[in-house]
Amino acid sequence: MSQQLPPLNALRAFEAVARHLSFTKAAAELNVTRAAISHQIKFLEDYLGFALVERKNRSITLSQGAEAALPKLRQGFDNLGEAVHLMRSEKHRQSITVCTTPSFASKWLIPRLHRFSLKYPDIDMQINSNVQLVTADLQGDAGGMDTFFRQNHVDVVIGFGAGQVAGAEKLFAVSAVPVCNPALVSNAHPHPLQQPEDLVFHTLLHDESNYVGHPSWVTWLKQQNVQGVNANRGLHFNHVSLALDAAVDGQGVLLAIKPLAQSDIDAGRLCIPFNLPIQLEHAYFIFRHEKNNNNQVDTDIFINWLREEAHSQGRESLNG
Predict the structure, then answer these.
(1) What one-character-per-residue DSSP string does the chain give?
(2) Is residue 3 one of the residues assigned to a domain?
(3) What mean pLDDT do residues 206-230 have?
(4) Domain count, the chain
(5) What confidence tens digit (pLDDT) does each residue in 53-107 have?
(6) Same-domain status, 273 and 177
(7) pLDDT tens digits for 7-35?
(8) 255 and which of 109, 137, 215, 245 could share a cystine (Cβ 3.0–4.6 Å)?
(9) Are residues 163 and 289 in the same domain?
(10) Range of weakest confidence among 88-92, 156-160, 266-270, 295-299
(11) What is the spatial distance between Cα 172 and Cα 313, in angstroms, rounded to a whole number?
């Protein structure tokens, strides 16, 4: 049976006094008067039956018994703080943390999240973007992914890569298509984009983000057998979002991952001048933290919703 504890206020006052070796500083920290601190220490000394502090002139020292008990007391307060944190976090159990690439978060996931919130209003979500999910190429071992989950405290990872890690589930395959501002296909333009050869009159925009498998004008032009267009000229960007912004602004033509450009296409900010896609070898994959039992139900709900969104995207592509 656990031993009876004295009032926590008295213990708290003593711990503050012991840390500062000052009644005045302890009182300031706990936002009480110096007399209140003195009263709590006297109460605790009477309860224990021995002196805790020794007053010498204007300084104080701890008694031998107080010195011996102090580490355990501090450990106890740390444990109490952790227990209170766990109890407070109970109300946040219905929440999940999702980690994905910055481009996927801003261009694919966030434009759809309102549908998830409407369908599941009781599930809170934290979205973390992490460039490691691009540069790592998702080809490490399963142990590496476990470490990633633990270090970043996430429930679900959505990444772009070859998906060679055990437990990877393909969300959807990826194609790339030329996209541009609609003004570049208008007959009012001196050289409207009507066929791939017209690219010779336009600036090529390049997504040169630091990840394996991004679209390449070299590959596209070769596959379409387009002659006379320098595949390396134009504007080069180290992030796909910058390249898409340049395309929206009418700066040129971008070979873009279609799912990332889709929201701008749907909004009329971008168009596909010629529907000649190329299939990329890499795809988007889902990983879940199997060892995290706190959010399994919500994680299942979110992953099922992702599958539904990906399936809907596939139907839209077939219809349009």
Answers:
(1) -PPPPPPHHHHHHHHHHHHHT-HHHHHHHHTS-HHHHHHHHHHHHHHHTS-SEEEETTEEEE-HHHHHHHHHHHHHHHHHHHHHHHHHHGGG-SEEEEEE-HHHIIIIIGGGHHHHHHH-TT-EEEEEE-THHHHTTT-S-HHHHHHHHHHHT-SEEEEEE---STT-EEEEEEEEEEEB-GGGGSTTSSS---SGGGGGGSPEEEE--SSTT---HHHHHHHTT--S--TT-SEEESSHHHHHHHHHTTS-EEEEEHHHHHHHHHTTS-B-SS---EEEEEEEEEEE-TT--TTHHHHHHHHHHHHHHHHHHHHHHHH-
(2) no
(3) 88
(4) 3
(5) 887 777 888 888 888 888 888 888 788 877 776 666 555 446 788 988 888 999 9
(6) yes
(7) 788 888 888 888 888 888 888 888 889 89
(8) 215
(9) yes
(10) 88-92
(11) 9
Q: Which pair of structure tokens corresponds to residue 34? A: 């110096």
Residue 158 falls inside a structural domain: yes
Residue 239, domain extent: 173-281
- Judge if 217 and 71 occupy the same domain: no
In a domain, 47, yes or no: yes
pTM over 0.90: no
CATH number at residue 208: 3.40.190.10
